[in-house]
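Sample pair:
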Amino acid sequence: MKFMKIAIEEAKLAQRENEVPVGAVIVDIQGNIISQAHNMTRTSYDPTSHAEVVAIRVACEKLANNILSNCDIYITLEPCLMCSVAISYARIRRVYFGAYSHELNGKLLEIHSTNFGINSSTYKPEVYGGILEEESRNLLKLFFKSKR
């Protein structure tokens, strides 16, 4: 819960920057925060700058390693396909997310089990959803309501 609350604070930062309010935190197995980030697609003019990808980039640079197998990621929203593949390639141990995505609707586990159509050796993290779901979902609802 502690790390998901930090991810929610990151999502609030994104919202203040007029970004879709999604936050992510990467933590090592000792419980140390390695990186935290929020969506930056508009501010960085980079469609791949989702919170998860930014957090992975920072963590890999900080640890000087492209493999994060001793790390977990906490995300306010179920990761999209691009982020799921990045999480898999980074070999993140566990994924904890808040709100379920309308795109995936809880199918992240199913997607990981299909190996993204890549090959049978693709890494599959443990996935746990619905953590502080209502708080995460409400941030998204308020954001999109304000855009209409």
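The mean pLDDT is 89.
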